[in-house]
Amino acid sequence: MRRFIVGGLVAVVGAAFIILTLTQNLFRVGTDFEALTTDFRPVMQDESIQGYQAGIEGLAAAGEEFQTQLVPALSLALQMSPEQLQAFMADQYPATAQGMAALPQLTTEFGGLVTMLDQQQSNFESADAIPTSNVVAQTVPWGFFVFGLAALGLGIWAIAGHVKFTSTAALVLGVVVIVATFAMAMPSKASDADDLNAALKPVYTTETVQQAQGGLAVLGAMGNEMSTSMLPGLAEAMQLTPDQLNAFLENSFPATAQALATMPEALASFDEMATVFDQNLENYDTIKPVDMSNLVWALIGGSLLLALAGTFGLFGRGDALEPHVEHEHDSGQGEELRFDAGLEESPDVSTKDLVSV
User: Fold this and answer.
1) H or E stretch including 168?
2) What CA–CA distance (Å, rounded) separates 228 from 245?
3) Measuring CA to CA, which residue among 184, 179, 47 is closest to residue 129?
4) Distances (CA, A) of 27 to 21, 153, 277, 292, 357
5) Residues 118-169: pLDDT tens digits?
6) Residue 135 phi/psi, 5° resolution?
7) End-to-end Cα distance, the chain
């Protein structure tokens, strides 16, 4: 009976992990997880996030300065009312007018995204190290699958009668997996990955990525029009050379001048970030429903069951449940003893009689 208890429990654990690996599509999850973390690694660096923050702050400051100071100054210089200047800008420089109108909302949205990425840096670094910083994530589903195959094989071997070997192997396997799981800090890494996933879910959708790309296209068109058409046109209207206009902006409107100088680089970095988000949408959709913590604790629980089954197989009190062939032998001996005793207790039968018989 013990072999069925030990073998059955070990086999069930193994079958469960094989089924879990296949039904939860963990091979695909591991591949997509590794691809996503690899692509996001440059985006999540301190230098990159600081660059995003500086670009957003510069654009926000330029947008406020443009509306509150530059427009009134240009109205005065061009002898137009603010309303007339806005109509003139919309007619002559529509991309600039559209970009400046959208700038407050765009900087707020991008600012919120970058703040979230900044706050999730430590979680990303932890998740990126699953299972370790030197081992790719694709090994995790293979580990689950091989663990399941090994347990299933041990269970079948125990049922076939090899209880002692199977119990020892199950105990060793369970303990090794538990120790390795905690040694690699997998519970905390999985928890951090789940926290990162929870933070990304509201903002990482097809709709938000498309909105970000559309906003960047608006800002790009604004920057291109300002440098190629608007500023030369304003210089001509104000009877200034391009150098004089630049000096005028630097002295009187430094935020606008700074944004104009850094806008190409800032928009390029935002485009790269948006591209990473866009190219990994499918990868994230695979990962999004997965609860990493549940998987890790399932592995720990399954390993604990193996260790308990192995311990029971080696040290449990299951002898009374096992059939023993020697009982029949003992019974035979008893019969022989009783036969001998019968001979001794029969005084009427002599040795001679027995011989004659």
Assistant:
1) helix 163-183
2) 14
3) 184
4) 7, 21, 22, 14, 82
5) 999 999 999 999 999 999 999 999 999 999 999 999 999 999 989 999 999 9
6) -125, 130
7) 49
CB 281 within 8 A of CB 209: yes
Q: 3-state class of 163 per DSSP?
A: helix
Going from the C-alpha of 219 to that of each of 1, 45, 59, 80, 99, the distances in angstroms are 75, 24, 10, 26, 5
- Whose CA is closest to 71, among 55, 95, 90? 90
At which residue do the structure tokens 């407050």 appear? Answer: 104
Residue 241, exposed/middle/buried by CB under 10 A (0-12, 13-18, 19+)? exposed
CA distances from 22 to 139, 145, 211 (A): 15, 8, 36
What distance in Å separates the CA atoms of residue 103 and residue 255, rounded to the nearest whole number?
14
R_g of the chain, CA atoms, integer Å: 39
How does 258-267 read in b/e, with b if 16+ C-beta sit within 10 Å? bbbebbeebb
- Matching residue, tokens 């046109």: 233
**Residue 150, SS3?**
helix
**β-bridge partners, 132:** 135
Helix, strand, coil % in the chain, rounded to nearest 5: 85, 0, 15
Confidence (pTM):
0.83
Q: In angstroms, rounded to a whole number, what is the distance separating the alpha carbons of residues 193 and 288?
A: 10
Q: What is the pLDDT of residues 63-101, one digit of tens each?
A: 999 889 988 888 888 888 888 888 988 999 999 999 999
Distances (CA, A) of 256 to 27, 62, 73, 155, 220: 51, 4, 13, 73, 15
